[in-house]
Specification:
The structure holds two protein chains of two kinds. Chain A is of the alpha/beta class. Helices cover 40% and strands 18% of the residues of chain A. Chain A has twelve helices and twelve strands. In chain A, strands 1, 2, 3, 4, 6, 7, 8, 9 and 12 form a nine-stranded mixed beta sheet that branches. Chain A has a three-stranded mixed beta sheet with strand order 5-10-11. By secondary structure, chain B is an all-alpha fold. Chain B has a domain at 86-256 and 304-323: Orthogonal Bundle (MetI-like fold), CATH 1.10.3720. Chain B is built from eleven helices and two strands; from the N terminus they run ααββααααααααα. Chain B has a two-stranded antiparallel sheet. Classes of the chains: A alpha/beta, B mainly alpha. Chains A and B meet through helix 3, strand 7 and helix 8 of A and strand 1 and helix 5 of B.
Amino acid sequence: MPRNGKLFRIALALAAAGVVASLAVITAGAASAKSSSGTVSGAGSTFVAPLVTKWMSPVQSQLGIQLNYNAIGSGGGVSAITNKQADFGASDAPLSQFNPTCTSCVQIPWALAGTAVIYNLGASLQHLNMTGSVLAQIYMGKITKWDAPAIEKLNKGRSLPSKSITVVHRSDSSGTSYNFTDYLSHVSGAWKSGPGTGTAVAWPAGEGEKGSSGVSGAVRTTSGAIGYVDVDYAIVNHLQIMKMKNRAGKYVLPRAQGIKAAAALDTHPSKDGSLSIVDPPKSKKYRNAYPICTYTYVDVQKSSGANADNIKKLLNWAVTKGQSYGPPIVFEPLPKSVVTFDKKQIKKIHS
Amino acid sequence: MTSLDVTPDSARRPFSGRRARFGDLILQGAAALAALYALVLVGLIVWKVIDGARLSISTFGLSFVWSTTWDPVKEVFGAGTFLYGTAVTSFGALILATPIALGIALFLTELAPRGIRGPVTALVETLAAIPSVVIGLWGIFVLGPVLRDHVNPALHSVLGFIPLFGPPGTYASNMFTAIIVLTIMILPIIASISRELFLSVPTELKEGALGLGTTRWEMIRGVVFPYSRGGVAAAVILGFGRAIGEAIAVAQVIGAFTGINISLFHPASTLGANIALNAQGASSGLETSSLIYCALILLVFSIIVNLLAQWIVRRTARRQGLAQ
């Protein structure tokens, strides 16, 4: 019993020390938070997370703002900003896609990227040609062999194997899926009236895998597989990438030049801020455009309260200086017309 | 009060004693609070789940349970395909895991040389300690491709006349991979409970049977199995409950296909996997509510399974009590 008593006292002392220590940490944290001029916290898209993460340290040093970001997915981001649980929400799909959505928010396109179509067919069949309508038929389960006439026609002179096509898509909801299905809906009537456009859809065929890592993992371990991931992921992981045919008739790889060309839009964002640039029109201007590109959005409450100034400072930085952090991870800088539009949108935010 | 209860009444109720002991009072209060906490927690969860599913329940009604459409774009939801996937994968895992687990338990209690019982028991328990996400990862990168390239074609060529073993597709993520992953996860549960049960069979009974000239197998069949039948059934049902509820590992290897395909070598999805995959990214209130409706179905199933296990254990205990 005395030994137990001693143990008990030691435990009690430890617990007390723990309480004191945690109190110290909390007060220290408060002190350090005070030393910078403010904190801006956001949540949402995993697609844009690599870029936002790159912004954190320059935002701290240049603006004195501590930027926190929680990559919980686009849907989570929209619900966080709708319920005012964050300073901003980041979403790959425009606000109109959500129900309920944030009606008191401004929507600002703040990053630009592309989606790569990847496959696994052995090194001799690098950069195959593909069109949107054939891709849609593959994802509908209508074309099931690599040597199908429709695919052979696009790749004359290359010997395609008589292998089954294993279709791989995302099993969780994602901005990459939104971009991909938005494209398929633009190029295929059957896709538009069938599965349609969304961060998650009722996939008619194939196996679903979680995250870009899941999709690329499945494609890598399955000879004859086809999938889609964000461009940076495809390049970093040395996956085989399709050349996609644009409306001007050219087969284009998802490289910086192709994404920039797709963004050279005459049209401005629609009034609510949404802007779809998949499958750009047939015109000389878009001759080099890669057809599966997308803007991703940041959503902010118009009345953002006491933190409004910091949020505006951050966003103005993000759509201008912040863009220079994108290219190494294949986020292309926003075109001027969009930056001008964004600045107008940011002005709508007040306290 | 049973005769086992030796706590005097005075110690039980501090106020009725000569001195109300302050320490006892605190102990009693703290313990009661802890018990209340568990009760309130369960109540809150059930209430929140029903509350969250309300929108979906009022939109789709009871037909949600068997409707096979899950379309986030058109906002039409039903749990039918997930219910099918859950039933097939957990029954499949049960059918594979039960004989192996019983084999392990018998080996460890009756057949193995004493020296290796300890290490093997420890290994089996370790299997239970592997986090499900780790088993899932291994399922993606190792198990899935191996099954697809080597096991599934062989199964199809032998058992192909049964529709369940259809053409072995090119998908590494499919129901069969999920079944194997679940088998690995529930095996240690059934095995370690069964081992405890087999150990509790009285030695006199076993030695008596052997003394009558039975073989070891006859002794096991005639004494060990009948004695522990109820407990083993409960262990199997507990394993089943684990298989029904497992979400992460299954989500990683089942291929998330919303539709019913009779072949085990085709992607599918389960209630738990669907919730795990879509809860974060749900794009409409109705989708979120429908996911919670799925959770409600899962909750009801888990409760039924647990009650069933408890009932079997109690019934067996009573019968054995009468027999002795």
